[in-house]
Amino acid sequence: xxxxxxxxxxxxxxxxxxxxxxxxxLSACALLGVSVSAASAQELVxxxxxxxGTFAGWYVPPNGPxxxxxxxFFEVSFGAGHSGERYARLSSTLLQFISQDIPTVAxxxxxxxxxxxxxxxLIGEVFTVRWEGEPVFQEFxxxxxxxxxxxxxxxxxxxxxxxxxxxxxxxFPGEYHxxxxxxxxxxxxxxxxxxxxxxxxxxxxxxxxx
Length: 210
Ligand SMILES: [Ca+2]
Hints:
This protein is an alpha+beta fold. It has a domain at 72-185: Jelly Rolls. The chain has helices at 22-39, 191-209; strands at residues 72-78, 86-92, 96-102, 109-118, 126-131, 134-140, 147-157, 163-169, 176-185. The strands form 2 sheets. The chain has a 5-stranded antiparallel β-sheet, with no helix packed on it. The longest helix is centred in the C-terminal third of the chain and has 19 residues, at 191-209. The structure holds calcium ion. The site of calcium ion has 10 residues, from β2. Calcium ion binds at residues 49-51, 81-84, 86-87, 179.
């Protein structure tokens, strides 16, 4: 967090205040404010919260009737999502994935975040995330009690430009609920420039205290 515009307690002038003219301080703070906005991480997942009410942006396996030997059930449902009102239900006997192409840049670091819920008993089931075809998350998610919405985060690096992200499970007849899937660059673009500007603003103050 960058501190630059906080007022002194009680409004009293401080002897060790910035040695910069007031107008410059205001301009610099305003500029930093713009930079903070510019440094906000851009969301790379399309329809990660499923608030479209559909799987728009996602590749999804075809559904199979539940009574078949190898059923598959993928649906965007309404009500009690982690955020908003929509979330996705994932359930299949065979390991099947929903997936999306993420517009990454090779050699860049990202953070994946997603929220899972298990509405019933689900013992011994592994939830799998693959990134560029390789597993990056394989954990037992569930148990003898329903699991409320729980966040998982995974640090990622793009080895290629344009990364393929997949979420897979074999939960049938149980199911996983997933919501708020996010991939953002870390650190956010512009953060380095922002830190540099913060250093420039801090420099006159250090000199004043010598
Ligand atoms: Ca949602």
